[in-house]
Each structure stands twice: as C-alpha cells, then as structure tokens.
Design a protein that fits this description.
Helices cover 35% and strands 14% of the residues. It has an 8-stranded parallel barrel. A 6-stranded mixed sheet has the order 2-1-3-5-4-6. Helix 11 packs across helix 12.
Length: 500
C-alpha cells in the first residue's frame, strides 16, 4: 500500500507539470464546455485545407418529404453543416449545383426513387440506410437514402459524424442497418422526480409542468438518442406506480411522445400488474378474469387514443415486491399474453422482465431461479412478447456468469438488458468504461446450437429465427447539465447505442 501511494504521488506531480496555469492561454486551446451538447457540438472544422474541401463537397442540402422526421432531418442538417463548415448553408427545393446533400426515403422522395436502388434499400430494412456519392440532375451529389424517413435520419447523423471526425466524404459507398429491431433506453424514473439508481440528478421529465410546458431538453434528448440509433424509451421505473397510466396523466405522457416521435423514438411505459386494483375499479388483477381483461382493454385503447404509436408495456412481475400473475395461480406466460393479445391490436409489444426470484418452490440459489421459472414456459409466450434478461443471473454484478435464460429458450423472443447507470461500478463517482464488458457479453458463446452460438446471435434473433430482437440499457441520464454527471458516463451512453 505504501509503494502504491508513492507511485500515485509521482504520477500526480507528472500530471501537474503539464497544467497550464495561465487561464487565457488555456482558453485558447480548450473552449468552455459544460457537456450539454454531448457528441452533437458541431464545432467548425479547424484544419484549413480540409475545411475548404468540405465546403466544396457540401454546398446545399435537399430533403424530400413532409413528415415530422423529415423536418428533424432538415433541422439537423442546418445545425450540423452550418456549424461544421463555419458558414450558413442553403436548403434547396431541388438540386442546383455540385455538392448537394440529397436526403430522402423511397416512400416519399422522387429523387431517391429515380436512382434504382429500391431492392438494396428494401434489403436494409426500415431503419437501414445508404450513403453514396452519385450523379443526380447532372450534378455530383452525396445521397443519403433509406426505405423510411427513420433510416434517412440515421444516415444523416452518420454523415455529420464523419465530417465532425474529419473523415473523408469522397467516393462514399456506405450501407448500414441496425442489428436489433428494438434498441431501448430504460429510465428508472419515478413520478416524484427521483431516479432509482440515478446518479446524475433528478428526472428530466417535469411531470408537474407537463403538458403545458414542454422543456426544450426533451428534443435534445431525442436528438442524442436518434444519433446513436436508439428507437424506444421506457419513461419510468420498472418498480412502477399507477400514476403513469392514470387517465389524468396521459396528456403528460403524450406531450413527451409528440417530441420523441419526430426523431423516430416510440414511448413505452412500465406498469404495475395490479393496476386494475390500484385504479379502484376491481378487487383482483387475475389475468384470466374477464373483468380484468376488459379493464386492460379499455385502458390500452385509452392510451393509444393519446399516443397512436405507443410502443407497449415493460413489466416486472413477481419480483422484489412487485405483483405478478403467480399470486393468482397463473404463469408468467399467461400474464404476459393477456396484455400482448390486447396490445397486438395496436402493433404494441410486451417486454417482460426475467428478473424474478424469491418464488416459493424454487432452488435456494437465487442465480438459478429465473431459469427455473421461465425455461418450462419456452414456446408459450405470444409473438409480441420479448423476455428481457439481464446479462447475469444475479443483478448486474461486475463479474458474473451469463444468465442461462439467454440461449436456453429457443422458442421465445429474448432480449438483453444492460445497465448504463453505474449501480455496481462506482455509482458514477468512479470512472468506469463499460463497453469492453458489454462486448464480452455480446461475444460470449452460449453453445446453444454448438460453437459460435454467441449472445449476439441469440438476441438479434438470427440463431433461433426469433420474430423480434431487442437490446435494453438502463439509463444513466438525469437533470445534470451534462446529462450523466461526468463525461465518461456520456461515453457509456453513446457506446451502448452504437453497440445496440
């Protein structure tokens, strides 16, 4: 310990020798930065020769489409390109010169449709995109194309990222698509404004001000998530309260959904399984009871009347005091499927968490209990149910084996839950780079169908031909000015999105 202390002291003196004491000199090289703009700062390119080349290659932008997401693409291009090029950039209704950035989707862009890329774009799917150097209307242009506006938005962020990182935009031929259908951020935020396992201040959702006052921070949140490919957000804690689906509060949820929708992000809510009782309407929450089913039917219809693209429910049942179907002698599959059948009418999903323990009749070893509960139910869950399992069988430990639910349920859509917020890795007081640990999880070989049956192949649906695929990350975002409390926390949020 004494030797380690001496080494740390020496390192401190070395680092101090590099400190520039003069504030003016320091400001010349390190501009003020409070962290709010995250990785979307768009500072002007400082290498003169490269800046001149970018200005030659980027002279105007043309965005075809009139959807909310098309509007977001226009705003981001104007903000990003004007900042990076250090001068205003013109939006044009048509291509007028070399260097145009042309963005659009097959569904609403005649320019994109004229390129003959239909088959390739359809292969890339709803969220995939292509960025290519091409010739259109007799001009050399850069094209960002997708089958959908959402994919075009992702391509827009990719091009802006290339310029911000001083990469070449000559002779581009990029094709990309997400590995997972659902790329989720799970907030553990409470109605009171507190956050369970939150280390960056209170919740960003100001429930007392909504829906009358919608913070501009919500759009910046949406921009940040869309830029790294996240397409879904569970707004509240898995240890849920009824407040979030109470009729009087649905306009508040809808106000947030209206902002996130512009960036291709669907809103989800965590629910308590005993909501029919909490509402005061019923004395039971038995998922097989006709009155309970009707209650949920009415409630779900009501939610969709406010939020037409509502994503669905996240459910933590029969765990850590949260009620579930076992209380009524029903299985988790029966509980999940009751909700799934109703949500299916609206193209909604049930994300059923596999974090279950303390159930009577199971092994005394807590690490075995989730597998013992869910393995016998393999194949019994509805198609629009995803079983969300933490990477380990205990509880986000720094080191633990893989949860056997992943790879052990070949007939059930299975998603992976990671924890971005640092519950067991210093609670954001300590710096901790989480990406290597997550990569190790993704690459772990379950041997479910022999060698090469990695976790990634399970959760992206390819190993067992699952209908749906998902990755969920427990958010580390709070009301702190820099969102995550410290810069490396931002990097973990960014890295999670890129991995997903």
């Amino acid at each position: 310990m004494k030797r380690a202390g001496i080494v740390l002291l020496i390192i401190s003196f070395i680092l101090m020798s590099f400190v520039i004491p003069d504030k003016t000199a320091r400001a010349a090289t390190l501009p003020d930065e409070n962290g709010y703009d995250l990785w979307l700062r768009y500072p002007s390119v400082t290498v003169a020769a490269l800046l001149a080349k970018y200005r030659q290659k980027v002279t105007e932008y043309v965005v075809e489409g009139s959807t909310d997401i098309s509007g977001s693409i226009r705003k981001e291009l104007n903000r990003g390109l004007s900042g990076l090029l250090g001068q205003p950039l013109t939006e044009s209704a048509s291509i007028t010169q070399d260097g145009a950035i042309v963005v659009g989707a097959l569904q609403n862009s005649p320019l994109i449709s004229s390129l003959g890329w239909d088959e390739e774009l359809q292969t890339l799917g709803h969220d995939g995109f292509m960025i290519r150097s091409a010739t259109l209307s007799g001009h050399a242009v850069t094209v960002i194309a997708s089958a959908s506006d959402q994919g075009a938005l992702y391509g827009t962020y990719q091009l802006l990222s290339r310029i911000q990182r001083y990469q070449s935009i000559d002779n581009l031929n990029i094709s990309d698509k997400p590995a997972h259908e659902f790329r989720m951020l799970n907030h553990w935020d409470n109605w009171s404004g507190s956050i369970e396992r939150g280390y960056a201040g209170s919740s960003i959702w100001n429930w007392s001000e909504l829906p009358e006052t919608v913070s501009p921070r919500y759009e910046d949140y949406a921009r940040a998530n869309a830029s790294i490919g996240i397409n879904g957000a569970v707004l509240n804690n898995v240890n849920a309260s009824y407040d979030f689906i109470d009729s009087k509060n649905l306009p508040k949820i809808a106000a947030i959904a209206d902002v996130l929708r512009k960036y291709g992000i669907r809103v989800y809510l965590s629910i308590r399984f005993d909501s029919p009782i909490l509402s005061g309407a019923l004395s039971t929450a038995d998922p097989m009871d006709p009155q309970v089913i009707q209650w949920w039917h009415s409630k779900i219809d009501e939610i969709y009347s406010y939020i037409p693209d509502f994503g669905g429910f996240s459910v933590k049942g029969d765990s850590e005091g949260q009620p579930g179907p076992l209380k009524y002698g029903r299985t988790h599959a029966q509980g999940a499927n009751m909700l799934a059948d109703i949500l299916q009418e609206h193209n909604g999903m049930v994300i059923w968490r596999a974090f279950v323990y303390g159930v009577s009749g199971l092994s005394s070893d807590r690490t075995k209990q989730a597998y013992e509960v869910f393995k016998p139910l393999d194949g019994q869950f509805a198609d629009n149910v995803i079983l969300q399992a933490k990477e380990g069988p205990l509880d986000f430990q720094i080191r633990e084996p893989l949860i056997p639910v992943i790879g052990g349920m070949p007939n059930t859509n299975t998603g992976l839950e990671l924890q971005i917020t640092q519950e067991y890795t210093g609670q954001s007081t300590d710096l901790c780079w989480l990406i290597p640990m997550w990569k190790e999880v993704f690459n772990f070989d379950t041997k479910a169908l022999g060698a090469g049956s990695t976790v990634e192949k399970v959760i992206n649906g390819s190993l067992f031909n699952h209908k749906h695929s998902m990755v969920a990350g427990v958010s580390n975002i709070g009301a702190s000015t820099n969102w995550t409390g410290q810069p490396l926390g931002q990097a973990n949020w960014y890295g999670y999105g890129r991995l997903a």
